[in-house]
Amino acid sequence: MTLSQLQKAELFNALHVPGEPLIVTNVWDAITAKIVSEAPGVKALATASHSISNVRGIEDGEGLSLDEAIRAATIIAAATPLPVSADFEKGYASDAAGITRNVRRLIEEAGIVGINIEDSVGAAKAPQFDIETAAARIAAARAGADQSGIPLVINARVDTLAGGGDWDEAVARANAYLGAGADVVFFLGLGDEDKVSRAIEQVHGRLSVIGAPGLVPLKRLAELGISRVSFGPGTLGLTLAALQKAATNLTALGDYPDELGFPFKL
């Protein structure tokens, strides 16, 4: 059965369950969206702006234009029947009204049912917009979703710890963003179990984190009560590492890797 965009948005929100985290493997084009969506157990997808930009030879940090970002999201969403969340960076606008317009466009033109939106000013994790401004930008994204009639799942990123900032400020930002209309807080910098536990205790809503080697294992994140785990550009790195390894082996006249015969088609 093909789900409507409204149904996909409602499903996507329902999949964010504390203790049973939604695992979203980040994709960057039509073929990765299709292949990942066909993997057993996958329930939803998320894009990664870093990957989408880099495969085009462009730096991350809104190196794409708004039109390019929406087109990339459209291609990915069209390649899979699953709900898709888009990394929408900072909303591709300097003001709240622009974010409202852009988010509505993304929903209506691309078929997207979720977004990540950042609270840092530039490409780095610091400085950030002041809390009031950042919260107003979340509210503006929610307004765009309301205008579209689609209950967009907003995953509001808190860059404070990743940018070298203060714990109390990070928690204050997380709660302010939830109050402004975010559904989930994408809390960067939770590098150990203690920080994950403290964040779950102090943030009044569902939490999303990055998974990577050296960070808290997936099963433990589930036990602690995380609601969503993604991998950002790490999945592109994983793919490139496999490609480079295969290229090294083939150049050395090694055996053909079994994966060279992997069946794929759009």
The largest pleated sheet is described as: 9 strands, parallel
CATH superfamily: Phosphoenolpyruvate-binding domains
Taken from the alpha-carbon principal axes, the silhouette is globular
List the domain count as a whole number: 1
How confident is the prediction overall: mean pLDDT?
96
Radius of gyration: 18 Å
Helicity range = 40-55%
Derived structural class: alpha/beta
Q: Which class in CATH terms?
A: Alpha Beta
The order of strands across the largest sheet is: 1-9-8-7-6-5-4-3-2
What count of helical segments does DSSP give?
10
Beta percentage is 5-15%
End-to-end separation in angstroms reads 20 Å
Order of helices and strands: HEEHEHHEHEHEHEHEHEH
| CATH fold node name | TIM Barrel
Poorly predicted runs = none
Beta strand count: 9
Overall CATH architecture: Alpha-Beta Barrel
Protein name: Isocitrate lyase/phosphoenolpyruvate mutase family protein
Keywords: Lyase, Pyruvate
InterPro entries: ICL/PEPM, Pyrv/PenolPyrv_kinase-like_dom, Pyrv_kinase-like_dom_sf
GO molecular function: lyase activity
Task: For this entry, give a set of tags.
266 residues; alpha/beta; TIM Barrel; 9-stranded parallel beta sheet; 10 helices
Secondary-structure blueprint of this entry?
Blueprint: H1 5-14, E1 22-24, E2 26-27, H2 30-37, E3 45-47, H3 49-54, H4 66-78, E4 84-87, H5 96-110, E5 114-117, H6 131-148, E6 153-158, H7 167-180, E7 184-187, H8 193-202, E8 206-210, H9 218-224, E9 228-230, H10 234-251
Parallel strand pairs: 1-9, 2-3, 3-4, 4-5, 5-6, 6-7, 7-8, 8-9
Helix pairs in contact: 2-4, 4-5, 5-6, 6-7
